């Protein structure tokens, strides 16, 4: 464990105060806004998350506004950010805070952890920034900074590594200004101790940085390799009826994109052609239901949509139908539904010129 925590925290906070970015959540200690920013920025870069934060604050200025919103409306506003369980948890927690806590977030780490979608990192951030509690945050930026400066090779994606880095961050935190320290170390990792080619010769810690002194910057932090990427084959059936209607279905099962909308989809074990598609029992049932007259392939080259642990190899089949089904919606209304980015890109390309 480091013995120079005052030196580390003083250097870090001095750097931060001189280099901090002008971000809207940096000028408030309102728990609602801090919570909102932290949930949005999970697995998301600041530049990508900032417009979403501003949209949510404008649309739902108070936690009660978010609690009273319809889930489909929230999912639509979230569209494009990915990891959609965050949006569902956001809504669930807003309801709890609004209805069971009179609109006031818990003022301590332990009770914050009880909120849906709030883990150690988010609870620590809110507790330190809003309530001045010395709870250290640990995220990818913190792992990277601490592993390099102190030369720690314990894998960060193991229970032992997570415990070790949490303990170290807790030891280093400036207890007189914990919120500033937490924001400083996250900012430093995001902007200076970056994953590739950090500017080590000009770093404030280079004289004591173990990774820099021993030429191991590119080796740290250590992370155990994840499982192999799984390939999945999606075949979307894009219905076009005689009255310019189409069909969207909501995903209700477990897994990706829960409660988002998509075109009817048949998943196969490999990439397939039209004759193979037409022989599938699911397609034959679909064809009977919608009285299919013609089908054509929209994209000769499959679209490969990459998620964290799987790649979706996707084809869009344009299906012309005689059936004016009650489940169909006007093409002009597709934009009202929250859909995955994969679907949104197709809709823009195809229906944008339709």
UniProtKB/TrEMBL annotation:
Entry's cofactor comment: Binds 1 [4Fe-4S] cluster.
Keyword Metal-binding in record: yes
EC number annotated for this UniProt entry: 3.2.2.31
Keyword DNA-binding: no
SUPFAM superfamilies reported in the protein's UniProt record: DNA-glycosylase (SSF48150), Nudix (SSF55811)
Cofactor (UniProt): [4Fe-4S] cluster
PANTHER family, per the entry: ADENINE DNA GLYCOSYLASE
Function: Adenine glycosylase active on G-A mispairs. MutY also corrects error-prone DNA synthesis past GO lesions which are due to the oxidatively damaged form of guanine: 7,8-dihydro-8-oxoguanine (8-oxo-dGTP).
Protein name (Swiss-Prot/TrEMBL): Adenine DNA glycosylase
Gene: mutY
């Amino acid at each position: 464990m480091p013995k120079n925590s005052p030196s580390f925290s003083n250097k870090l906070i001095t750097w931060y105060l001189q280099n901090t970015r002008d971000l809207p959540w940096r000028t408030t200690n309102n728990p609602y806004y801090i919570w909102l920013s932290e949930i949005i920025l999970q697995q998301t870069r600041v530049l990508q998350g900032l417009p979403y934060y501003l949209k949510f604050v404008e649309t739902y200025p108070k936690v009660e506004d978010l609690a009273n919103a319809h889930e489909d409306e929230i999912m639509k506003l979230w569209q494009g950010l990915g990891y959609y369980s965050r949006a569902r948890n956001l809504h669930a927690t807003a309801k709890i805070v609004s209805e069971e806590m009179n609109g006031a977030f818990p003022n301590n780490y332990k009770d914050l952890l009880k909120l849906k979608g709030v883990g150690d990192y988010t609870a620590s951030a809110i507790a330190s920034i809003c309530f001045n509690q010395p709870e250290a945050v640990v995220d990818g930026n913190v792992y990277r900074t601490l592993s390099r400066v102190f030369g720690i090779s314990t894998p960060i994606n193991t229970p032992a590594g997570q415990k070790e880095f949490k303990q170290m961050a807790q030891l280093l935190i400036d207890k007189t200004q914990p919120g500033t320290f937490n924001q400083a170390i996250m900012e430093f990792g995001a902007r200076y101790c970056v994953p590739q080619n950090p500017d080590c010769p000009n770093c404030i810690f280079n004289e004591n940085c173990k990774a820099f002194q021993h030429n191991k910057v590119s080796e740290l932090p250590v992370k155990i390799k994840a499982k192999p990427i799984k390939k999945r084959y999606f075949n979307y059936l894009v219905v076009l009826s005689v009255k310019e209607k189409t069909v969207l279905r909501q995903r209700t099962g477990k897994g990706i994109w829960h409660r988002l909308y998509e075109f009817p989809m048949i998943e196969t074990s490999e990439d397939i052609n039209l004759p193979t598609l037409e022989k599938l029992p699911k397609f034959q049932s679909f064809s009977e239901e919608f009285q299919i007259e013609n089908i054509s392939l929209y994209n000769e080259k499959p679209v490969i949509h990459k998620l964290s642990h799987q790649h979706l190899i996707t084809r869009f089949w344009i299906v012309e139908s005689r059936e004016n089904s009650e489940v169909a919606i006007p093409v002009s209304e597709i934009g009202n539904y929250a859909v995955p980015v994969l679907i949104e890109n197709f809709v823009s390309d195809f229906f944008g010129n339709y």
